[in-house]
Design goal:
It is built from four helices and ten strands. The protein has 170 residues and is an alpha+beta fold. It has a single domain, classed as Hypothetical Protein Pfu-838710-001, CATH 2.40.320.10. Strands 1, 2, 3, 4, 5, 6, 7, 8, 9 and 10 form a ten-stranded antiparallel β-sheet that branches. Strand 8 and strand 9 form a beta hairpin. The longest helix is centred in the middle third of the chain and has 8 residues.
């Protein structure tokens, strides 16, 4: 089960280049249900995603390079390219009702931002995603100060929908 929230970004972190970065290319064989292929650096995957916005099933299967490129020829819509920076959240903040109800030591919660900086034709789109262990934690999470808007429940920000967007070159 994938449980994540998505945010637009006000400003990029100053030390962005100090974090691990992955080069990602992905394309969609189907968008309902979502069947995606992805190249992340030198790894290749086929992914199935169930319905949902914040929480949904997700299954990843490995592909080899030849299979990835064969399937990419069959993909519909736009191929999406982006750089993903993986940024640890050192002191995650949660609403007080969550903090009083959890038995975990808050210092032991480890979260990270997956910051996606899209390449043309989607640039200058930048989306931050944070994954959680459960829905209660996801709902209680407080946005970081460099986040702008919570777009978790806006399907327009799902990559599968971006893949179907009509793009006008200009």
């Amino acid at each position: 089960m994938e449980i994540e929230r998505k945010f637009t970004v006000k400003k990029l972190p100053d030390d962005l280049e100090s974090y691990p970065c992955h080069v990602i290319e992905q394309a969609y064989l189907n968008t309902d249900p979502v069947v995606r292929i992805r190249r992340e650096d030198d790894s290749y995957y086929l992914t199935y995603k169930g319905k949902g916005l914040m929480a949904r099933e997700e299954y990843n299967l490995p592909l080899n390079e030849k299979s990835y490129y064969h399937l990419r020829e069959k993909a519909d819509g736009n191929v999406i390219s982006k750089k993903r920076y993986v940024i640890p959240i050192l002191n995650p903040m949660f609403d007080m009702t969550y903090l009083s109800s959890v038995q975990k030591n808050i210092d032991q919660i480890s979260l990270q931002v997956e910051l996606d900086i899209f390449e043309p034709p989607f640039a200058p789109l930048v989306i931050a995603e944070v994954e959680f262990s459960d829905e209660e934690m996801a709902r209680a999470f407080q946005m970081l100060d460099w986040f702008s808007q919570d777009v978790t429940n806006d399907p327009a920000y799902h990559n599968s929908n971006l893949s179907r967007r009509d793009l006008v070159e200009g």
